[in-house]
Amino acid sequence: MPLIRWQPFHDLKHWEPFGEVDTLRKEMDNLLERFIPDFGRSLDGAVFVPSAEIEETDTEFHLKLEIPGMSADDLDIEVSDAAVSVTGERKSETKSEEGGTRRSEFYYGKFERHIPLPNPIERDSVVAEYKDGILSLTLPKSREQQEQSVKVKVAAV
What we know:
Distance between the termini: 89 Å
Shape: flat
Oligomer: single chain
């Protein structure tokens, strides 16, 4: 009768807790890549997306974008009935320092911000101002949209 070596933990697989986290990270990267094709890709590895703030009144939207260090001529604003797109490029300044080290955490390069709007707007009446690094847009709502209202009768039960 041959002897058989007993291996009680032979069928157990080696568990790597960080392997699951890495898999989750890869799946999240793939998901972001689907919705934002250029996510995480630029020449220097940085991505710049201007912060936005929007406020709605009865007659218009007030949109603010934080875009410091640029001039108004560097910005391109396109308005459609349903969205606003702001693109631009911050060009780097080249300075050479002798005998020293230079470090910059500023982002230089192109950016784009696309903001969908819940209501149609009057494209011809949009007003834009750029002051102290803040782009302010006043977007009047479409008059047709404002005038559309429906009265609803309440039935007594």
